[in-house]
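Allow me, if you will, to draw on your knowledge of protein folds for a short while. I have a record of one protein: its chain in single-letter code and its fold written as discrete structure tokens. I remain grateful for any guidance, and I place the record below:
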Amino acid sequence: MNDRSAAPGSLALVESLVNTLDLESGADALDTAEGRARFGLPENTDGAGDAAGELARARELRESLRAALLAHAGHPPHREVTPLGELLASAPLLVTIDEHDGSARLAPSGPAPTTSLLARTAAAVADALIAGTWTRLKACEAVTCHWAYYDRSPAGRGRWCSMQVCGARAKMRRYRAK
């Protein structure tokens, strides 16, 4: 949907998770096995069970992230969601220390292939907070879009995921309204 380059570092995980749902068309990449595999989610989510619950939790996380990214852009949540802080509070993280330079960071706990999406997302947010990039990840202000993008503008005042699509539409609406 957007013509911007991906968010830096681990924020790319957050950006790509939010962008699994195209609000305009209704297409949800998490409905496909390939889309779920990108995030380490179980393939078979038919019926009840843990796989279906994990998919529901991933969608809840996605929409809470979208609400936070809308707040970064100065907009209210798109709908009522579980606060992101509440979701991330239960993420299993641990402090790791690099033996070479002594730097510390939060990392998801558990073996890499089975590390939960929630823990990986919490670690990505923590890394972005430390790097000072968290608030640069925003959601497009267009109501039919809300696509996540990383705002690389010098002043940090980007409003749309794409000037060629959402920005042009908004400017055309404003022009016609005059």
About this structure: The chain has six helices and four strands. The chain has a mean pLDDT of 86. Residues 50-72 form the longest helix (23 residues). Residues 64 and 84 are 5 Å apart (CA to CA).
